[in-house]
């Protein structure tokens, strides 16, 4: 008698027959019935030695005790055993699989949950158990799932990650390498999936190792076969991270030290002889997959005794390969299973037409794709070849552009894509970034894409299709280029470009390979704002430099060359590479002067002014900024005029002239407001700069109000560098208010974000932040300060901003309760009290974490306003006015 085990019901495992009441000797068929599996599964278990049995003639005899033992071991979840490895740490059980870096140091944004397929996972019980057993062994730290395209490696890896990652203390992450064409970009792809960004002062691999080094973590790398040269990087990462386990899917082994390979077999098939019934055929995994996909395509489809044999034969003809089965099952809405089987009969001879050194299943897969391909109309087939040039998907607009490049009318492109979607050769992609463009996005399985690429080249159409592809993306980026410098739509545009980044890389590579240097310069130069705002600084500089290097050997128009130089200079400047930024900006300035482009000259001068300001060459910086301002005023562009005035304002601030700084920055803010939302980025920066100056003047109330508005603007723009500056400046405000613990946490968040996006604070600002952090460390003590910094660094940018915002609001609500002489600012009164306490300029600067030059400037203003000639006279005058008292102890931070 069979009954369901209550224990299995309680644990949520799939209900299995309980055999505790069985007695005597059982045959393999009876054991299969007791377990609810195919008899072949039982025989395989006996052959492996997993199920104890004795052979009697051609039959097996299994005791009830052996069956019970096998059943328990078969469904036991393997767990790591403490003490099996010196590096082992007990796992923490959780209910969801979430990448461990969510909310840790070096994070640019909170990673999303692991990919969750929309279709159910079917079968693969034996493979799941075997892979789980391998991952449970401490010596298996690099496991590669191998097999031909379409064997189901990715789907199996996703399911393994879903079930096994919770057993790792820090859980796991899934990284798709399919869109990556260059093995050198593998570290960045992994880092980006984990929220890590490149930094100029540290190799990306070192940053990854530093973050993963002490974490019990499962990293899954999908589609590794085309980036095999990156294998040594994975070995180095494993060597640096003793608790890291890497699971790879690849069509070939990586041939690396310590690698364990697991060939992913086809799905189980029904028996080869006899007339199948729905009950017998339905036990096979391949048939289960076919039925599930066929019923999804046509709800009325069901497996029955009449079609079971045909379905089973289809699965056998397709060698149990999941993708081939899915392609066939999608056609039941147009053909009966008998008709499907007949077409497979006609196409089987092609199985011998593939490469002789390719495995049979790969040839079967190619035949399955060819069969599906031949069902298309001639127009759809022609377009399908063209679409294979896209990497990582495409929009309908892009497909129409490439299709028109091959001579297809626009209406035919839409009709052909519809037929490709119906044939399951393309998939509709629904995601926020794609929807934001107002155009539907589509994707293609990599196996099918590779097959179509071969057909494209065989047809001699590869060059034409790639030309059309590159031309479309060049036109698209140049069309939106002006909008990449600001506006409410900036966030959506940047997200769209992020989705299209694989296609943009492919376009740049093609233009470089074909020698179209000018087009390559135009595309790279137009993408500079995207690479800046989305923290691809290192990669962007690489593309720009490569384009510029090629342009030195061929005649190219000055305009695209100058644009690329300007873009490369800005990226170098934001990474703190001031020497290279100056070289590029000077060369770009010369080109712009030769062209007589006043706007181009002005932007080059403005950047050179920023470089000299960062270097501390204030006089030369002033000359550059003033020359840029004069040219911007000639053009009449309000936003650029505001930019130049704002730069002069920050320069005045670093020189200690707070009144001039305030006046210039107030003017910049007003001009930006006049220009409207087109310059949202500039408005956010100018508000933050004015708040910075107000904070240094001691007007904390105004500074807090400006910081609050600036944060709102930065959130609209969505760029991270502005938020990094904002956080650091708010931390200084918190320090001045004596809120040391909060300041340390916000400083930690600012530093983590800056490092994550590869952004360098300008030198004077960096020195100011460091003085403030030194003051906070002195107040809190080293241990408490380090803990607070680490806690802040673990916050995501949004979490850090949410934590800092109430601090700003609190200051704005309470105000600065200092009695101020009508002619003295709060900061000047504070410095007067410091002078009265007998402190030197150096001690005042250290106490208030400002420069000695700024202290000198404040003192000069105080002497002028109080109409005195010395500091001693200023103190006396301060007592006379009631600003100072005999027992007045000057506050250090308030």
Question: Any overview of this molecule?
Answer:
The protein is built from 42 helices and 13 strands. The strands form four sheets. The protein has a five-stranded parallel sheet with strand order 7-8-9-6-10, with helices on both faces. Strands 3-5-4 form a three-stranded antiparallel sheet. The protein has 894 residues and is mainly alpha-helical. It has six domains: 3-74, no CATH class; 125-263, P-loop containing nucleotide triphosphate hydrolases (Rossmann fold, 3-Layer(aba) Sandwich); 278-372, no CATH class; 376-481, Winged helix-like DNA-binding domain superfamily/Winged helix DNA-binding domain (Arc Repressor Mutant, subunit A, Orthogonal Bundle), CATH 1.10.10.10; 578-814, Tetratricopeptide repeat domain (Serine Threonine Protein Phosphatase 5, Tetratricopeptide repeat, Alpha Horseshoe), CATH 1.25.40.10; 826-880, Orthogonal Bundle (Arc Repressor Mutant, subunit A). Residues 1-22, 75-113, 346-364, 432-436, 816-820 and 888-894 have low confidence and may be disordered. A hairpin with a 2-residue loop joins strand 4 (54-56) and strand 5 (59-63). The N and C termini lie far apart (82 Å).
